[in-house]
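Run log, item B.
One chain of 122 residues. Sequence copied directly from the ordering sheet:
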Amino acid sequence: MSWQLPAFQAYRGTIPPRFQNEVELECAKLLDFYGVPWAYEPRTFVLARDEDGRVRSAFTPDFYLPEQDLYVEITVMRQSLVTRKNRKLREIRELYPDVKIKLFYRRDIERLAQRYRLRLAS
């Protein structure tokens, strides 16, 4: 998907981000508006490899906030469909215990959108 990207001031990546959905873009705008340094999908965590060492399962959180040393994953899936994502986050916490990661659900994003008057796609 292609949206018109603003000139981000707090973005810490080297190439322009390619957001998966409008909610990610709106969250990036919010972080940027408040001057919170962020990077988009800067790291992929390997969760499982096969017997030949090839990656079988991995997870790439949406945002990294370097000042908080925090990864943030945004999900707008219905709550009933989030089980797989929750499992992957549990695996990250087990395999990478020093990594801080937070999952924001649809309801969290909707609350932020209301509070900051963001326009979310249905």
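Observations after the first pass:
- Residues 83-95 form the longest helix (13 residues).
- Residues 40-116 form one domain.
Flagged for discussion on Thursday.
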